[in-house]
Amino acid sequence: MSTEANKQLVRDTWGAVTNGDPEGFMARLADDVTWTFFGSHRFAGTIRGKEELISKLFAPLGEVLAEGIKVHIDSLTAEDDRVVIEARGEARTKDGRPYNNSYCIVVTVRDGKVAHVREYLDSELVTAVFGR
Q: Rounded to 10 degrees, what is the CA torsion of 83, 105, 48, 62?
């Protein structure tokens, strides 16, 4: 795929998150997707595959957040099979606290799907909202 096609895939993938379309999001991921969170928080480490992504990330997010996360992409940079996203998240917890994180996400595209994700975010904010 071209770098423009890869950027559009990333826009569409994170757009599905913003629009509350989990099926659309998951359809854009490779079955063997890996998602690595850097930092020191409860999600830090590497998640492997869609099922683990659902159980180890999306289920805990759903337990705490009222309506998911809206992702506002500030910039996309692409080279070869990689797309780098700088973005801001906007969400509220079920008890009304804001969860507005900042992200740098490095995506590797393979065969028209998101294959690898490396995500950098505010670890202290994750811990304050989701616990250890």
A: -130
Helices (H), the chain: 3-18, 22-27, 50-53, 59-64, 123-130
Q: Which residues contact 24 (CB under 8 A, 6 or more apart)?
A: 12, 16
**How many Cα atoms sit within 13 Å of 115 on the Cβ side?**
8
Q: Using alpha carbons only, what angle is made at residue 26 by residues 14 and 44, rounded to the nearest 5 degrees?
A: 70
pLDDT in tens, 29-75: 999 999 999 999 999 999 999 999 999 999 999 999 999 999 999 99
Name the β-bridge partners of 34.
48, 116
Given a contact cutoff of 8 angstroms between Cβ atoms, the answer to whether 112 and 23 are in contact is no
Reported CATH class of domain 3-130: alpha beta
What is the rounded distance in angstroms from the CA atom of residue 71 to the CA atom of residue 21?
13
How much is the pTM?
0.93
Residues 6+ apart with CB under 8 A from 6: 78, 81, 82, 83, 107, 109
